[in-house]
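queue> pop job 88
queue> type: inverse folding (structure -> sequence)
queue> payload:
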C-alpha cells in the first residue's frame, strides 16, 4: 500500500556551503532553511529526513563530473600516489597477520587483502546511471 509523502519545505533542509559563500535565498517567502553548515569534509550539498522513513536521510551531491568534485578527486588521487612509497610495508604487515590467533585481526586482514588485490573501495557508489 502506498503512503502520502509530506512535502519537503525549506525548514526541513540542511544546506552545506563554504564559509564565504552567500546563503542561498529561500524560495518560499517567510520560510528559512533548517540549518546552514560549513563542513568541507563531506560531499553533500543538502540533506533532509525522508518523510516516508524518518530514520533515513535524502542527500543532494555534486555531479561526478563537476569541477569541484574533480578537484576533490585530484586530491584523493594525489594521496593515493603518495601511498606508493608505503604500500609494500602495508602489504607485508597485513600478510604477516594472516597467521594471527586473533579472529578479529584475521578478518580485518582478509578484508584488507581483498580490498587491495581486487581494488575495492569502501563507500557510496560513484557515478550512476
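queue> result:
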Amino acid at each position: 500500500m502506498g503512503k502520502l509523502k509530506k512535502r519537503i519545505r525549506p525548514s526541513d533542509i540542511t544546506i552545506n556551503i563554504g564559509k564565504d559563500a552567500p546563503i542561498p535565498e529561500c524560495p518560499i517567502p517567510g520560510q528559512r532553511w533548517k540549518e546552514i553548515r560549513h563542513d568541507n569534509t563531506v560531499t553533500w550539498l543538502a540533506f533532509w529526513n525522508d518523510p516516508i522513513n524518518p530514520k533515513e536521510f535524502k542527500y543532494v551531491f555534486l555531479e561526478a563530473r563537476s569541477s569541484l568534485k574533480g578537484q576533490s578527486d585530484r586530491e584523493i588521487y594525489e594521496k593515493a600516489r603518495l601511498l606508493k612509497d608505503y604500500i609494500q610495508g602495508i602489504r607485508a604487515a597485513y600478510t604477516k597477520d594472516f597467521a594471527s590467533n586473533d579472529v578479529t585481526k584475521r578478518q580485518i586482514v582478509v578484508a584488507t587483502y581483498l580490498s587491495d588485490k581486487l581494488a575495492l573501495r569502501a563507500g557510496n557508489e560513484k557515478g550512476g546511471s
